[in-house]
Amino acid sequence: MSIILHLDRIMADRKMSLNDLADKVGITNVNMSRIKTGKIKAIRFSTLNAICKVLECEPGDILKYLDDDDDLDPSEEGEGI
């Protein structure tokens, strides 16, 4: 099972910087960067909720589930959380 993160795409669509998103969500830039790059093992629902509120999106817009049997799109490699 793989979870792919599309936070960078949503942020680009909204023209929002990492620093702005971190400030509005109420977490450090370092933690937001770790979320964005997929260098986390878990995310709190409260943090996911805050990100979705700020970006005006649904969790499914940010997260994508891939079964182990599915081929990973080369453009999505390294984005999993």
UniProtKB/TrEMBL annotation:
Residues 7-62 form the HTH cro/C1-type domain. SMART domains: HTH_XRE. It comes from the Bacteria. One of its GO terms (molecular function) is DNA binding. CDD domains: HTH_XRE (cd00093). It holds the Pfam family HTH_26. PROSITE patterns: HTH_CROC1. Gene3D superfamilies: lambda repressor-like DNA-binding domains. This is Helix-turn-helix domain-containing protein.
